[in-house]
Amino acid sequence: MKSRAPFAVSVAALAATLAVLSVLLLCYGPTTTYTLGDAIRGALALVGATDPLEATPQRILELRVWRTLTAAGVGASLALAGALLQGLFRNGLAAPSLVGVTGGAGLGATLAIVVLGGYGPTLLLAGNSTWMPYLLTASAFCGALVACFAVLTIATRDGTVSVPSLLLAGVALNTCVAGALATLQALTFDHHEVSRAIVAWTFGTLEDRERYHAVMVSIGLLVACSAIPFVATELDLFEGGEDDAASVGVATGRTKLLVLGAAAITTACAVSVAGQIAFVGLVVPHLVRLVAGRSHVRLLWLSCLTGAVFLLATDLGQLLILGDRRLPPGVLMSLIGGPFFLALLYSRRRKVVAW
Amino acid sequence: MSKRIGARATIWLVSAVTIFVAAWAIERTDRSEARPADWKVHYAADGGFPRRCELLGHDPLTIAKPPERIVVADAAIADMLSKLVDANRIAAVCDQAFSWSQLAVDAGDWVKRPRFKSFVAEAVLVHEPDLVVCCTFNTPETTGILRRAGLPLLCLHEPRNLDDVRKMIRLLAAVTGSEGRADAVLADIDARVLALARQPGQTPKTALFYSNHGAGGFAAAGDTLCDTAMQLAGLRNVARGSGHVRLAMEELLTLDPEVLVIGIAAGAATSGTEHFLQSQAALSELRALRDRHIVRLHPALYMSGSQSIVAAAEEIARQVKRSGNR
User: Fold this and answer.
1) Do residues B154 and B131 lie in contact, with contact meaning Cβ atoms separated by under 8 Å?
2) Between B146 and A337, residue with greater pLDDT
3) Extended strands (E) in A54-97
4) DSSP secondary-structure letter at B131?
5) Which of A110, B3, B130, B257 is most buried, most CB within 10 Å of its CB?
6) Residue B186 — very low, low, confident or very high, per pLDDT cuts 50/70/90?
7) Rounded to a whole number, what is the distance in Å from the CA of B55 to chain A's nearest CA?
8) Going along A10-141, which residue ranges are E strands?
9) Which has more pLDDT, B51 or A121?
10) What is the pLDDT of residues A187-207, one digit of tens each?
11) In this complex, do B11 and A150 lie within 8 Å of one another by their Cβ atoms?
């Protein structure tokens, strides 16, 4: 009981912070500021609870609602996926990109841009640009799942997923994906509309998100969250090694598949709606571990909430500092996450040598 | 074992087919196929408004009355509209127009109009426009939101020659009800083109519109406005193909143009391309460098892709003449 109070307090504090940040992001935007009353009224009008504001303010508020929900969902998804994978790999440097999900989504989206068109004037679906955002999202999602399936297939032998093989297969697949992406970028170098679209997607984006973006990322997050009760205790037991976990009755194969499946689906959904946003899955679980310790029940739920808070806070921070010159989230997270990753490596250099 | 080999073969086959399809899609992109302004406008019986605009590959657009709150999201379109409508009809204009179009040189009353840095839906909606004009550069997510919000949205392809520019000016005039001003702009273009053509005849010099900052060079080949500007200036573009193509130093040496046209930042005396080319020993015998036949152009003249390309041609002709007299 003694340990539950801080967990409940942490959840309450994070939920409150999340609510405050969300409301602030509804009130403040790059063009205009709304009163707290108007922001809440506009948001409630979306579910028919109140009368909407005037047409233009209501549309702007709706855009902010979807952007905020998408950002929170993406942050939560990536952080949760990172915490799950770090638990599975028993390695604090694991992240969703490691199993090829992020790269696969990137390749899927790039193929959608290049092959299906929508940005370029004369590609296959010229004129059907209305469908392009949906196709882009669907293609990124398929790419993520195909990449994860490929890595899992390579790392599975006699029905058992080998964690070291998974790690190596992920690295190899990321290299293949990077090569394929570079090839596509080189092939489209002269087509600057397509080239620009690819680069923009690679940076990640939270601009002009819509209802379907928020719904998609929420579905992925719900799927991953529903796996937490089935894997949290098992991941605690994984800390001593897979064999030890098996010796105390953990179904290691099922746990690995559940963790990988949950991490892959939630990352695929997140990356397919917001592009590639690195380091959230790496940084957030580490921050949470400092407060919550190593218990995965706490770690997973708190990572989820902290991820949402983290992305919203950075979004609000740069909105207040940079206004409508906001950096793409992928770029910002690299600026924050890169130094963090280096510091992590430096502080753990003895352990790294021992791997 | 055979199962594993089969799985590997499948992975390789799928990868190869994917890359092949992508490469095929890229290669089949025929830049000459879709012209920037293949359009038709249906006028009201009295020739006024409402007007229904049909643009190739897009949903028809109905303009109920002459738009008074226009949001402009592209530098070229800003350049053209600046000649067609008064600044007070502009609700907002993209910031880039003040760097990459003639507005960088002479913004007039446009400088007082609200600006936005990023073309995102909120930045447009807040101005409550009655017409949004953007280009195919803009993301479909944003244009989709604006369309669904019921805003009249005109999304144009970039022009690639002077005929495209003329068509775009006529289209913009049709949707804004500015035909009279468009006639004057087009007459001015025709007169200046004629004046360029009447310059004392001589064998056209070979030329190349080139940029290279050390990470690989690019040249403007056929079907680009830079190519148009050089032709109007009486030069012969030696770059082969169409669009902006990669051009290595070896090819540059082989083509050996008499004149090099390069872009230069406002107020600067030289450019990164010029520095780079002059620092390369292998290029010391390049005719244009050796004879100092280098034309330096302000980006406002050629970057936006508007009627300003005629001014670019005049500037090229002036600098070529000056270097020839030196």
Assistant:
1) yes
2) B146
3) none
4) E
5) A110
6) very high
7) 10
8) none
9) B51
10) 777 676 677 778 777 888 888
11) yes
Phi, psi of B138, rounded to the nearest 5 degrees? -70, 145
Q: Please report how the helices A252-274 and A211-238 are oriented relative to each other, as an axis angle in degrees rounded to 10.
A: 150
**Angle in degrees, 0-180, between the axes of helices A192-203 and A329-347, rounded to the nearest 10:** 50
Q: Identify the band that residue B193 occupies on the pLDDT scale cut at 50, 70 and 90.
A: very high
Between B199 and B19, name the one with better pLDDT.
B199
Q: Under an 8 A CB cutoff, do A190 and B21 touch?
A: no
Contacts of A153 in chain B (CB under 8 A): 7
Residue A111 at interface with chain B, using a CB cutoff of 8 Å: yes
Rg of chain B over Cα atoms, rounded to whole angstroms, equals 23
Task: Enumerate residues 130 to 169 of chain A having a beta carbon within 8 A of any beta carbon in chain B.
Answer: 130, 132-133, 150, 153
| Single-letter code of the amino acid located at B295 | V
The identity of residue B233, as a single letter, is A
With bands split at pLDDT 50, 70 and 90, how would you rate the model's confidence at B34?
very low
pLDDT of res. A2: 47
Cα distances (angstroms) measured from residue A61 to each of A43, A52, A318, B165, B192: 7, 10, 19, 38, 49
Q: Domains (ranges, CATH) in chain B? A: 39-193 (3.40.50.1980), 200-325 (3.40.50.1980)
Distance from CA of A77 to the nearest CA of B (A): 22
Helix (H) or strand (E) holding B294: strand B294-297
- Closest approach of chain A CAs to the CA of B322, in angstroms? 33
Among the partner-chain residues B30, B120, B147, the one whose CB lies closest to the CB of A207 is B120
Half-sphere exposure of B290 toward its Cβ, with a 13 Å CA cutoff?
11
Contacts of A71 (CB under 8 A, 6+ apart): A25, A206, A209, A274, A308, A311, A312, A315, A329
Tens digits of residue pLDDT in A170-181? 889 989 988 988
Q: Which two tokens stand for residue A132?
A: 């392009």
Q: With 50 as the cut, is the pLDDT of residue A103 above it?
A: yes
pLDDT-derived band at A136, boundaries 50, 70, 90: confident
Which distant-in-sequence residues (6+ apart) come within 8 Å of B178 by Cβ?
A: B84, B85, B172
Cα–Cα separations (whole angstroms), residue A73 to A87, A283, B100? 21, 16, 38
Q: Which token pair is B114?
A: 């609200």
Paired strand residues for B260: B208, B294
Residues of B in CB contact (< 8 Å) with A are 7, 11, 15, 18-19, 21-23, 25-26, 29-31, 33-34, 36, 56-58, 116-118, 120-123, 125-126, 128, 136-137, 139-145, 147, 149, 157, 243-246
pLDDT band at A123 (very low <50, low <70, confident <90, very high): very low
